[in-house]
Write a structure and sequence with these properties.
- Keywords: Methyltransferase, S-adenosyl-L-methionine, Transferase.
- InterPro entries: Methyltransf_12, SAM-dependent_MTases_sf.
- This is Class I SAM-dependent methyltransferase.
- One of its GO terms (molecular function) is methyltransferase activity.
- The protein has eight helices and seven strands, in the order αααβαβαββααβαββ.
- The chain is α/β, with parallel strands linked by helices and 245 residues long.
- The chain has a seven-stranded mixed β-sheet with strand order 3-2-1-4-5-7-6, sandwiched between helices.
- α7 crosses α8.
- The longest helix is centred in the first third of the chain and has 14 residues.
- The relative contact order is 0.20.
């Protein structure tokens, strides 16, 4: 598989490159050196140092929203990219702030975060969506009634038209979690689904390492931007649009 381009690629007539229908072998590029990053998930480390961290984080977002600050830029982009009544995964959803735009737009939203306290806030604020406590590196979402603990009796794996990972989530993962997380996200994409991931430079996850991990996970980078309103690519911030290889 060729290396992923780090500059934007022109869209096709339909607005994005069309992925093939079959998933790539997630071990295809396993000879690459894993990206350098933290030994511990940065969110776990923050909560370990300060048990009140999650509560204050949730309070901060509620306060920002109450002040009228625009916190829905990512959600507007995802809504614009999605077919109507799309299945959307918010990967690293935190308090579920993107639901405030995506649910009224008619989409079926599933949110996943590793912090139970943040998921509790999301369930309270947006009960219409499905919220799950899971680590992205072990992501396994099933249709209602499925049981992750008993694979033989598990429901069908959920697949999504759009997946979004905003808020620097991928940069919070430990080095050992990053590639498995991208593999799991790829596994949950519909054949023509897309993953949109954004994070800033200087957070311990070099953009070229992300590109290598995405390729190894069976993803193809279709376009790259520097903001959620699709400004040209830069070295400061990455918004990547990916599809299954």
């Amino acid at each position: 598989m060729p290396s992923l381009p780090l500059q934007p690629t022109p869209p096709s007539d339909s607005g994005a490159g069309a992925p093939s229908s079959g998933p790539a072998d997630p071990t295809a590029a396993s000879d690459r050196t894993p990206s350098i990053g933290p030994d511990e998930n940065l969110w776990h480390a923050a909560v370990r140092r300060d048990p009140g961290h999650a509560r204050r984080y949730a309070e901060r977002w509620r306060r920002i929203a109450a002040e009228g600050t625009d916190i829905l830029g990512e959600a507007r982009l995802i809504d614009a990219m999605a077919p109507r009544r799309a299945r959307i995964l918010d990967a690293g959803c935190g308090t579920g702030r993107l639901a405030a735009h995506l649910l009224p737009a008619g989409h079926a939203l599933v949110g996943v975060d590793l912090d139970p306290e943040l998921i509790a806030v999301a369930r309270e604020d947006h009960p219409q969506a499905r919220w799950e406590v899971q680590n992205l590196a072990e992501l396994d979402l099933r249709e209602a009634g499925g049981d992750r603990a008993t694979p033989s009796d598990a429901g069908e794996r959920l697949v999504f038209d759009l997946e979004v990972s905003a808020g620097n989530v991928l940069a919070f993962l430990s080095a050992a979690e990053r590639r498995p997380a991208l593999e799991r996200l790829a596994a949950h994409l519909a054949p023509e689904g897309r993953l949109v991931a954004g994070f800033g430079a200087g957070r311990g996850y070099a953009f070229e390492d992300f590109a290598a991990d995405a390729e190894a996970a069976g993803l193809v980078l279709q376009q790259r931007f520097s903001s959620w309103d699709l400004r040209p690519a830069s070295d400061d911030f990455l918004v990547a649009i990916l599809a299954r290889a």
